[in-house]
Amino acid sequence: MESRITKKQALCMLVIFIISNIPVLTGYTAAERNLWLAYIIAFIAALPLYLIYSRLTTIYPEKSLYEIFGELFGRIPGKIISGVYILYCLNIAAMSVRNVSEFVNIVSLDKTPQIFILLCCMIVCFYVATRGIRTMTKFAILFLPVFVIVVFVMHIMSLNIYNYSNIEPIVIDDVPDVLKSGWVCFTFPMAESVVFLSINSFVKTDKGEGKKIYLWGLVISVVIIVSVVLNNILVLGIPTMIKLYYPTYTAISLIDFGVVRRLEIVSSALFFISGLLKGSFSLYLAYIGYKNIFDKPKERRPRGYLWIFLGGTVLISVAAYFLYPSIVELIDFLYAYSIYALPLQLFPIVLWIIAEIKYKKNKNKNVIKSDTM
Amino acid sequence: MKKKICLVLILFLIILLLCGCFNYSDIEDTVVVSGLAVDMCDDGQYKVTAEIMSAGSDNEVAVETEQKSEYGFTVFEAIENLKNSSGKSFNFRHCQVIFISEQISNDGISDIIDFAFHYSGFRLSMVLTVISGNDAASVFECEKLLYDTVSYGVFDMMKQDQIANSKCPSAQIYMCLNSLENKGKEMIIPMISVEEQEGEGKEYRFTGMSIYIDDVQTGTLSVEQSQLFMIFMGKTMNGELTYNFDENYASFEIKDLSVSREVEENLSVFDLNIDMIISVRQLPEGVDVSDDEQRTKLEEELSARIKEEINDLFLYVRDTYGSDIFGLGNQIYHVNPSAWAEISDEWKELFKDVELNIDVSCKINDAGRSSKNIVPNRR
Amino acid sequence: MKKEKIDKKKTGFSLLKKIMPNNSSEPRESLKFSEEKLKNEKTSLNADSSKIKISKNIQDNINYIKKLIGDDPTVKIREFHTKADTPIKCAAFFLDGLSDDTVISEQFIKPLILSDAPVSDNVLNTVMSEILYGGDCVSTCEMADMVSAILAGDTAIFFDNCDQGIVADTKGYKLRSIEEPQNEKALKGPREGFVENLMTNISLLRRKLQTVDFKIRFFTFGRKSNTKISVCYLDSVVNKKALALLYERLEKIDMDAVLDGNYLEEFITDKFFTSFRTIGDTERPDTAAAKMLEGRIVIMVNGSPSVYTVPYLMIESFQTSDDYYANSFYASFMRVLRIISYFLAIMVPGFFVALISFHNYMLPKELITSFISARQGVPLPTIVECVALLLAFEILRETALRVPGSIGQPLSIVGAIVLGDAAISARYASAPMLIVIAVSCLAGLLVQNTKNSILFFRIFFLVASSILGMYGFLLAFLVFIIHLLSLKSFGVDYFDYNIFKSPQKQKDYLVRAPWWTMLMFPEYLTKAKYRQKSGREK
Q: Rounded mean pLDDT of C241-247?
């Protein structure tokens, strides 16, 4: 008997999955003052993709991504593709944890070797992931309102240092830059939720209810991301924002609202917790994939339960350490990531086409059957 | 076998946990730096003076300050020498002001701004200030005037001024960097001078602001001119204006200000509209503000005077210094970025031909507690 | 040849099996054995005399009992017979001190001696329905029941020519009187507390809930102690899943003695490796009755005044019976205060150490200078000072508990004030750290029910903060919350995260809403819906 999670829990987890980087960094800044427009373009590009996810949830209710692979492509090719997606989950976890430990290393604990911070974070991720999906999503429901409220309160507190001329003119004059920025914003973090499809087997969705998770998740996260990016641009100004590694962190450190000062510790705490939550959740998704590959999808705790997580943890630590040498190369890595991850993220389009054809065939078959009865 | 593996894992964990605390430092080993002063020496070296807050021992309440100076060819080297000269670790996160001497300001301060931006020990909300003269470190010898340190006194003075008087512009590091990198606006930094009174010690005073072209100082504005500058930019929150009406002085307080700018098609004529809401604080003699006619006349006179003064300021800056501190280039960028991209490189020369049409309208709102003057011996 | 090949394969896998721990859901070998054993012994737990029936010959019975416990000088035997011509021979066994002499003689021996009923085939029927006066007598044909009755203080009566005996309830030992429990004092409300006798406790509870819904079920545990345990609940309201789980776990217990409920608690608790209690206890009947009314189950153990309630949720550690007898606003404020003080007690030392040692730029500049001057000359690093002060406070607290009455109060005052002051003057500790530790410890004393978790997590947060500063604190916080969220108490979530969902669920959680608004039952606890029909007109 597997644990069940409600749609609201899945929604909160999805939102945290997408906005986990936002309290600290905002991504590729080639678009300069049009960065928020780049995010809106990325939203428009991600909208059909998320509609495809909801549609897949309707066609294959309560089947996770790996099971869909198995159904569409047969047993063995499905397992190979699932293997690729498991590695992708581990990659996402490694990126998230690496971002967190890099941030901690640069901003606060600069004399501590980064591998040590990474290992401490991974130990906690291991513990959190072994508690199961219900616990993690329960925490997401508790954490997300705090996150959103804190972010918006910080925006209100920065109102007196806004410089409204920083966004003007609201005209896209440099289209290639904006598109490039939008493309990177699309792959990281919006289209990463292709792996989120693997929790469909835990959520009970009626026909057409997949939209409640995916679409609403996308809309809420985009609203938050765009508001944060706008806040950054308005507070910092373009030349400053481009140079900084962590623009949101710096923008919040400038808040001086009466007695309220030095709020950046709150922002870094939010980032820390949401980054670790994303990492442990991706580890759990890899574990679901493992269960599907070895044909134990319904078993609650298969043999070697803890050792699977331990193996995943070790893999993530090693990958995180070697992902990119230092923060300076982060932009190059993001650029490379947006190229190699794109096929994985757009693969559901292919799935959807094949699934629609099969669905229509099945529908026709059923109709013919009922006619002949 | 299983036990051995578990044992190895546990030992590994324990080693990890016990070898932590790299960043651990006891609080009594830290030293709080409240302000920095940067001077240039004769041999081209920077002299950096830090004002340090040291706590008295045995729970004394009073805070003493010391100064320490170190030299180096770059600001970073000087600061590292400063750190190395003492066993304690320096905490720059409470440093709020950087004082720069006018001599360095005349040579170029881009390396100081660059360093302050990159150095992770500094906060970006630090304020830059220029000390007139050649000795920036002398500001630390001023009287503290009920503050813990001179730097906090200066910082609070400037912050209060922005709320109460609006004469002093705000020059935080990120704002200076934005102006430096922006071709459409030049940098401005407030200026402080240290004056020595006979037998009373040194005192610091706000004496206006310094104007830059790129990172080199070209001139200064006085206090009155900087107030007008703030009105021009629309950043005034409060302020007092004192004018002379037939040898009687009257004071007015600015309650609300809105400024709108426009640029014409030929990109060299600008329109400036200033709407002010004013309350009368010290009535001019013989004027009765409750009377509509007299009030309108007063408003018109005020508008004319302010317009004249702002026009004078603009022409003065344009002709004497040629520095676009008003952000007119940015104005062009906001309207027509592609046109701006073409002319941005020559903007420094083009600015000298720019014309400005100013339109000021004042409205008197309230006159305090009463609207009529006191007439001695009226009854 | 084939067999060897198969064996080689097996060795390969078996090596792997040895490394990988067996985390499957099948029960382990030892548990299986004890289940089978229990099935055999369920009927009677006196293993020696199991399956022996009472014989028709009374002399055999007497000899058997004499052989078993006859050399015990407190066991008394009384042989007598009825007045009839063909008398019924009887033999009564009882324990001196445990049984009430008057009841035995008046209710059971006197009517038998005075009766003139003859021997018949159905002796027992005659005796039970025509002769004996006593109210509580049960017939049995198992020897084991008779023996355990004697040991419990009842009287066992054998009859000649009858293969059944009578167990008569004649318990008459001295008990502690009903008084207010020391640990759960209330400012207002009833001052009764449970005592050590199971029947008295059940009567105390029964008086509060005089309804047909009140159901009891008895168990007996302990091979040597034969302790009786009762499980009480209200049938229409109880959480059925928890009840089923409870029965399932109780049936797996096999111990040699159960002297207190705590012995049982460690068997039936959901998860042992946690410092949070998932089974609540109380010594007050009104608290126990209130918990039963909400759908919880009460377990009472003979010989212990603490009764246990399952399921137990986190919020209950912050509720006291005072809340319900006092004004609603005051009670809500106090409850919020308790919750805040719980989090203060856990997190303040770690947070403070992290701020001072790793992130001292986060403090306002005046505080930094005052801390520097306070810490001048203190030889210990901040963390060691914190641990030393915590240790000192814990020693003070335990001393105040254990030391006999009159010395306890002044000692704690002396310890706290004088020693603290002396420590600061001697430069062993700094004043800010002392205040922080004092706040944490005092806040911890306010919520006594969570003592265990405060002790453990305070040190956990402290150690984590001393490794990675504020980020270590955040890691520890994450572990703490995830641990809380993953706990369950008999199928109910320990930490209900849905409290923000609707005002209905908030009514008894963070605040104590007035009684006339609490129309429904807590949804997470039971499926029953409406508690009362309507409130009042406001």
A: 86
Q: Read out DSSP for C309-333?
A: EES--GGGGG--THHHHS-HHHHHH
Lateral strand order in the sheet of B240-245: B240-245, B248-263, B269-282, B355-364
The closest alpha carbon to B124, from C357, A266, A161, C363, belongs to A161
What amino acid occupies position B130? V
Element of type H or E holding A81? helix A75-107
What's the pTM value of the predicted model, to 2 decimals?
0.86
Provide φ and ψ at C440, rounded to 5°. Answer: -65, -45
Q: Does residue C538 surpass a pLDDT of 70?
A: no
Q: Are residues C335 and C483 in the same domain?
A: yes
The verdict on B5 touching C (C-beta cutoff 8 Å) is: yes
Tokens of A330: 């982060």
pLDDT at C382 over 90: no
Sheet holding C307-310, edge to edge: C214-221, C227-234, C297-301, C307-310, C280-282
- What number of residues does chain C have? 538
User: How many structural domains compose chain A?
Assistant: 1
Helices (H) and strands (E) in chain A, counts: 14, 0
Contact B55 C370 (CB under 8 A): yes
* Residues of chain C with C-beta less than 8 angstroms from the C-beta of A113: none
- Please indicate, yes or no, if residue A83 is contained in any of the structural domains: yes
- Assigned token pair, C311: 């399921």
Q: Domain range for residue C479?
A: 327-489
Whether C21 maps to a domain, the answer reads: no
Answer whether residue C11 shows pLDDT above 50: no
Q: How is B233-255 classified by DSSP, letter by letter?
A: HT--SS-EEEEEETTEEEEEEEE
- Which pLDDT band, with edges at 50, 70 and 90, does C238 fall under? confident
Using a CB–CB cutoff of 8 Å, tell me whether C352 touches chain B. Answer: no
| Contact call for C357 and B30, based on CB within 8 A | no
Q: Give how far B105 is from chain C: nearest CA, Å.
A: 30
A·C CB contacts under 8 A: 77
Q: H or E stretch including A76?
A: helix A75-107
More confident: B251 or C408: B251
The stretch C497-512 carries a mean pLDDT of 61
Phi, psi of A114, deg, nearest 5: -65, -30
For CA atoms A166, A168, A170, A171, the dihedral sign is negative
B88 touches B30 (CB < 8 A):
yes
Token look-up 């104007």 returns B211
CB-CB: which of C23, C467, C479 is closest to A306? C23
Q: Which ipTM score applies to this complex?
A: 0.92
C1 assigned to some structural domain: no
Tell me the H-state helices in C223-302: 240-250, 261-268, 285-293
Task: Fold for B224-370, please state it.
Answer: GMP Synthetase; Chain A, domain 3 (3.30.300)
Q: Is the peptide bond before C410 cis (omega within 30 degrees of 0)?
A: no
Any B CB within 8 A of A116 CB: yes
Instruction: Indicate whether C89 belongs to any domain.
Output: yes
Q: Could you tell me the CATH number of the domain that includes residue A50?
A: 1.20.1740.10
CB B298, CB A129: distance < 8 Å:
no
Q: Please tell me the distance from the alpha carbon of residue C296 to that of residue C276, in angstroms, as a whole number.
A: 18
For residue A63, give its domain range. Answer: 7-372
